[in-house]
Amino acid sequence: SVASSASSTEHEIRLTRQSKFKVRALVDGIMIEPVTSHCDDDNYGDGGSHFSGTDDDDDEYTASALIERLTIDDDEDAVMQQQPSFQLGAPGQHSRCTRSSYGPYVGSMDELEDRIGPDVDGGLIFTLKILPNNYNSMGEKKLKFLQPKDYDPLSQTPKPRRKMPFPVTVDDFYGSLTRIGELVDVVGEELVDDLWDRDGRQCSNTTHNTNSDQNESRPPRWVFTGVINGWPGLPMPLEVLTIQTRDPSFLGRRKGFTTSWDRDNEGRIEGKSPSLCCKSASEEKGLQVKAKLRAPEWSAHGWSRSSPGFLFWVEGQRLGSVNPPLVVTYGTNLISHFRCPEEDDPQITRVHMINHRYATGGTKVESQKDKLTYHSIVLLEWDHAKYCSVVETGFLNGLGGYRCKSNWYVDRDALETNLYAAFPPEMVMPWKDTMSEIRVHDVPYPDLDSFLGFMKNHSGHEGRFVDTNVSFSHAVRLTYRSRRNIVTYLLNYIRRDRTYSEMKRNCQTFAADLCGFLAGKRDVRPYHPVNQIQYTTQKHKFLYESSSIDDEGLESSLCYV
How far apart are CA 202 and CA 265, in angstroms? Predict the structure, then answer.
């Protein structure tokens, strides 16, 4: 929370959940209230249902141990309970802020319609579970439709940053909905009588036809605005597509969810709002309720409408630097961000493919799949020898959804990393393992040998890396190889295809494509034989802009869940 003062500002700090005291300090005119973060990692690690019983439909957001997985210690939940999370400004304005924001929309309706954009498929899909207002009336051990691990008894609210479906109470959900567009007035058969005669011939009343055309051009849409469950990066506003209900009994769970409100039927044809159809389902009928919402169409192409492209670059680390501030730039903004005179633009000189398995933390025994799971990165050496750059691909929002804990920085295990502080809030949201992002990290090592020394220092199952090896190393033979050129190539690649696949499109296939492209080699393959089976080189995707593909509608018609 923020408060201004003429002289100084008071800071209240809640150190841990067990703290019985507060520490006060004076700092430069802003009151910062660090509170306990409840973004524990069983958030991502288990596949359990949030509703009672088991239902595969509820587990839309789980972190399976795929090739680009992030290791999670069994006892890290206890550590996270003590982690401070700084609440800066209003909810959603900082990457570390875990507060939610609900309530009616108070801005301009024209602005809201502009933000939601055209009514087309393609935006990211998110799901909510709507809890009754009295879900915790019987105490922590008898919660309605919420598991105890997702509940904070201290604040008596759901813990922030849960996996999908995100928990939201009835009043918070329906109180944050706003209708845009026009309702069609339908009473019995009046509309049919007005537009059509009894013989089925179209009525000549041009006034009614004109009004109907206008209503069709702006059909009613119900949108949600706010900050959901402490995730600042969820792209707003979200349009409500469906609301489903299910009886919590054994037979009801076997039957599954049924649709109680649909945007096209109850919403547009009947003109009924979601609250009119479904608000009583949780409170009075005792049903489990789940809502499906769709983000604006641009959300499937980037973290903001003005800078498309799921690529980000982290700068700041230099040879000899000690704990420097980091700068994160993403999307097409990178092109202008790196604009400089040609003679000042650094050039890459060598490219390497490095592979490793993930450490298990020293307590977990490696499974057979763990032993086959290798992560591949590309290390770029620059002509100035001030730093190298690690290039990798992984789950979309894999870092933002994991509190920006990157293996490539020394402070990965700190409670608050420099990368977390530098991350834009719009990039902090749950990861999606069906979509990918490209990450570039500048690291303070001038060449391959010094970087491998860093990896050696963090090797072993109690460290970060296991079985580190270099499978490809070559001079860069590409003619245009400046930093701005590299950004353009990477943007072309990720904007052409944003999907992620455990077998066909992952960190290993990307590393093979990039190494072969930069070195001008045809025989570069993914590291592991399993990934070589279905591999087909995609080096051409670095060269061509994706706008022509989007114009043909090959990708824009997809709906990303």
Answer: 24
In sequence order, the 6+-apart residues with CB closer than 8 A to the CB of 56 are: none
| Non-local CB neighbours of 76 within 8 Å, separated by 6+ positions | 40, 41
Angstrom CA distances, 394 to 170, 304, 430, 504, 556, stand at 35, 19, 13, 13, 22
CB 218 within 8 A of CB 182: yes
3-class secondary structure, 200: coil
Question: What pLDDT is attached to residue 499?
Answer: 95
pTM over the 0.90 mark? no
Average pLDDT, whole number, for the chain? Answer: 80
Q: What is the pLDDT of residue 277?
A: 86
Closest CA to 291 of 239, 252, 253: 239
Q: pLDDT tens, 417-460? A: 999 999 999 999 999 999 999 999 999 999 999 999 999 999 99
283 vs 216: CA distance, rounded Å = 34
Could you tell me how many helices (H) and strands (E) the chain has, helices first?
16, 20
Query: Hey, what's the torsion of the CAs at 99, 103, 108, 113, to 10 degrees?
Result: 80
Q: For 549-559, give one letter per residue: b (16+ CB within 10 A) or e.
A: bbeeeebeeee
Helix (H) or strand (E) holding 76: helix 76-80
pLDDT average, residue stretch 317-323: 89
Question: How far from the centroid of its chain's Cα atoms is residue 538's Cα?
Answer: 25
Angle between helices 507-519 and 483-496 (to 10 degrees): 140
Average the pLDDT over 13-42 and give the result. 31
Strand partners, 530: none
